[in-house]
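Researcher: I'd like a structural prediction for the single chain below. Treat it as a standalone chain; there are no partners to consider.
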Amino acid sequence: MAEREHAPDPAAERPRERIVACALDLFHRNGIRGVGVEAIVEAAHTNKMTLYRHFGSKDDLIIEYLNYKGRKSEEIWAEIEAESPGHPAGQLYGYVRKAAKFIAEDERGCDLANAAVELTEEGHPGLKVIEDFKHQQRDRLAKLCEAAGSSQPSLLADSLVLLIEGARVSRRSVGALGPSANLVRTADAVIASFGVSARDKSDAQPKTKDRQSLRSA
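Model: Treating it as a single chain, here is the predicted structure.
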């Protein structure tokens, strides 16, 4: 999953924090290859010497960016669990709704998936970060599918991953009114087909703020 980043306040943080905040914002909006070190230091109100004192290279800053995005996913999982405590089926349906919300609100999609496309050099350390993260997320989803009572939890997890990743691409290529608009309905049908009852789906409904965000997206 991905969360929308807000533009940083360059005057509010220390140099390293400003550099990281500006890199997060610029990489998300323009892509890793679309942003040079010059643009980052300008946005952070600093200079290259300071950037390279904290990060040995742009690649080191990319790794920081990818790891940050991975850490943010833990907050999203915590929200899902808090919205349906003790109800794995509710959490599973909630997972889909959370993904659909982010996709509807932000056409840039998954920052790590985008980075995987941009990092074309064989053996780039960022690719290992992305691969490990994606495996961990898929395995965590499979465990949730199992806890929810799926007849084939691994296959259901793979199906949902493919649906969500495809919805991100569709959102980017044809807009919010394309096939990605039907992600929740499609995923619900897939989850139900694997024997996970929809009776707990009410537990997975977004809270009022989330519902308003979905309607206005």
